[in-house]
Amino acid sequence: MASEFSATGRTVWYWNRAAAYAVIAALPPIVILAVESGTLARIRAIITGTNVAPPLPLLFIPGAANISLAWAIFFVALAVVYTRDAGTESDEQVEQRPFEKDSVAEREPELAMAAPRAEAEREPKGGDDVALPAVKNVAEAKALLDKGNELYTMGHYEQAVAHFDEAIRLHPRLAGAWAAKGLACSALGRDQEAIRCYDESLRINPRDAAVWDDKGNSLFALGRLEGALNCFNEALIVNPRDERAWYNMGICLANLGRPEEALARCNKATDLDPSFAAAWQAKALVLERLSRTRDAIAAYKQFISLASESDAASAEKVRQHVSELEAAMQRGV
Q: Alpha-carbon Rg of the chain, whole angstroms?
């Protein structure tokens, strides 16, 4: 249906253009006829109430008749061309290409990268009218994806990318492999390449909130904050209870100088997951920026209590900062 509509629309456009050129071709002869027959003079006489003036000579341009003829021939030729194209277009079906939006974006929150999802079946289910081609090497492709995931978690990112590439070669519609490759590329600092991988994964399965989050992270890393915000919003459209997306939006909004909005998003993240340590830290930072020191201290302490062993160094710095804030409050600063 989409292609039929496209063909019809283009046919109408050709006929409209042909008609417009035909009208333009007729204008100069009509004007010259009106001048020579004295029509313009009669109209002027009626308006002014004077006697009818004699007809004007053939305009004031030497060779006006020839110019008018050339004009008419040129635009008649254009009208004929568009008429022919309209007839040809109506017999052919025009392919309707999907509209591709530029990935507008902007910068990524300071998140620990999530491990690539091992859900190799991350593919579109499609409707009854969607026929996906059969893939012979699905099992082998998924085995390569699993091995790539293992290498990724061990920090062997280049080797992981090689496995993901091989999985994609065997099964180009394996959305999980594209998403996993994006994470590995991002870990290697190749965020532009990562974004291309996420886009491919989302083209196959646009309802994957985790991939929208990951793409937003890479956009944030490139300093493209507004685009990252758009990605996190897309993740929340898919899954409104995605605490990671709420947290990421808070980080983006804080960096955009919108602390009140950032606080609301961080609050949503901690409401959905009270054990989300990073969200408590982000919330504390925003509260401190809003000069709500007492609330910020409470949020910092919540972060300290939830921090994992890998965040021990960060938690210690936060603990020292809290001590400084409390001392300043006691001094009335």
A: 34
